[in-house]
Structures are given as C-alpha cells and as structure tokens.
# Entry
Amino acid sequence: MTKLLNGEKLAISIRKEISKEIKTLILDKKKRLPHLGIILLGDNSSSITYVNSKIKECKNIGIQSSLIHLPNNSPEYNLIKEIEKMNNDPLIDGFIVQLPLKKHINTDKIIMSINPKKDVDGFHPENFGKISLNMKAFFPATALGILSILDRYKIKISGKHTVVIGRSRIVGRPISILLSRKNNRIGNSTVTITHSYTPNIDFHTKKADIVITAVGIPGFLKGKMIKNGAVVIDVGLTKIEKNGKKSLLKGDVDFNTVYGKASYLTPVPGGVGPMTKIMLIKNTLIAALNNR
Ligand code: NAP
# Structure
C-alpha cells in the first residue's frame, strides 16, 4: 500500500504557520511586512508562470512583492544594475532572479552579484558553502520543501540510504548535501548522487530506502527500479502538450508501476511543487526577521 505525500495539504498548514508568525513577529510589533523582490528576464512562458505563482503566493499570505521584468535582449549589465538596486534597497528583505537565464547571460556572475543575506533562493556560493558545513544559511526552496515533507510525515532519514537522481544546483546537489549532513532529525543519510553519466542507475535505486528523482524526463523512474517499500520523492515537472497546447504536468515517476510498490510517494502535481513555493516565502520571512 502506497501513501501519497500530500504537499498541497502540508503547504496549507505551513502557510497558516507563516501567517501566524507574520502576525506575532511583524504586525503586532508594528514592523513593516516582509518584502520579496523578483527579477525576471525575458518572456519564457514557464518562467512567467512560476513568477506569477510566486507573486500570488505572496498575496495569499499577505507579504509584499515587487517584480522587475526586463525584456528578452537586456544586456547582462542591466540585470546586474537591477540586482544592485535590490541589494541596496532597505525595503527589500530578500529577492530572487528567476532561472534559467538567456544564453547571453553568465548565470554564475549573476548569482555572485546577489547579496547572500538577501539570497532567499539559497543559490549564492556563500549560502551553498554554509549549508555544506552545517551552518545557518538560506536553503534552496525545493530542497527545503523535500526536507519538510520527509520531516512532517515523520519519515526516518537517519541511517537510511538515499539515492538522488540529478545533480543540478537547484535540486539534486543541495538535497544530497542536506540529507548527508550530521543531523539526527533531517540528515545522517548515506547519499548516492547519480546523473546522466551514471551507468545502470537501477543498480543504485534498487538498493535505496529513499529515491529522490529530479531529472525532468516523464516516467523515468519505473517500479522495477525500486525496492519494495522505498520512499519516492518525485521532483520532476514537465509540461506535456495535449492537442497542441501545453497542459498536463508530468513527474519523473511512472506512477502506474511505482504506486503500490513504494511505501510513500509524492504525487505530481500536488507533491514537491506547492512546498517549493511556500519555502521561498518562509526564507523571505527569515530574511525579514534577520534584517531588522
Ligand atoms: P537540470 O538542471 O536539467 O538537471 C537535470 C539532472 O538530471 C542533471 O543532473 C542530469 O545529469 C540528470 N539527468 C538527465 N538525464 C538523465 C538520465 N537519463 N539519467 C540520469 N540522470 C539524468 O534540471 P533541474 O533544474 O534539476 O530540474 C529537474 C526537474 O525538476 C525538472 O523537471 C524541473 O522542472 C523540476 N523541478 C521541479 C521543482 C518543483 O518545485 N517541483 C523545482 C525545480 C525543478 P547531468 O548533470 O549529467 O546533465
């Protein structure tokens, strides 16, 4: 029997907790509301959708957001100018630059331009280094969302073997680091990280207690690739065209063969996605409290 890990429902309860914290720590003390800045470059439809849903999440929870939308062909220095403005704006608590960026922009240079204290996406090397060293830092939102799902559903991580498929800077790499940290509650896992150069991925996944897949290939993880009772976290989100329109969202997991074999599984949609959005807001609240 597989239990679905309901990220939607968890996100609602975390939203309530954050609203309560905003009331007691900010509004009751007559401080101004947390303020998230968002910089978007270009007209990539997925990026626009993600940004709009982040703005909507801010509205739902009652925090401020400001969007700077630059045209497709904006040069790198314009983007850096906007980053500098947000770095120096005392009314912006934290901000993000929506990724991926256009080919003419150096993503590393952009991330390095963000003040780590305002880096609520947790992508700056200072935050990345700190999480590796078990220090206080901003965790990337998706990794934090996965940790929260495992933690709140009381899934044992310590001493377990986790296989992560994918090594990107936004998902695979940070979650691998976080789960292997020395931490009884949300760490102490033995982590194997795999990627497109790993031969026979199923050799690893079949032995795993927890499989986290962040590849972006619908149906990639089949039931025969996991052991009975494994916990499966599906991070993949791919838009599938239906009748010429991009509509369905598909995960990396082949639901029909994994459901029934896994002990726990995050559905797509409604698993990791809603948790990612809410964790960005949580990071913004932390930034706001740190900044005052
Ligand atoms: P990415 O940067 O493209 O990374 C994909 C990773 O998968 C890479 O490490 C790549 O290996 C690996 N990979 C590709 N093909 C593979 C194969 N055949 N076998 C094994 N590994 C393979 O993608 P990402 O940004 O991490 O995103 C991954 C997926 O998660 C996407 O569907 C994205 O939309 C989704 N996502 C969802 C959320 C959410 O909130 N739910 C958040 C972020 C991302 P190499 O390193 O060798 O190229």
Q: What stands out?
A: Residues 142, 165-168, 170-172, 194-197, 201, 214-217, 235-238, 272-273, 276 surround NAP (CB under 6 Å).
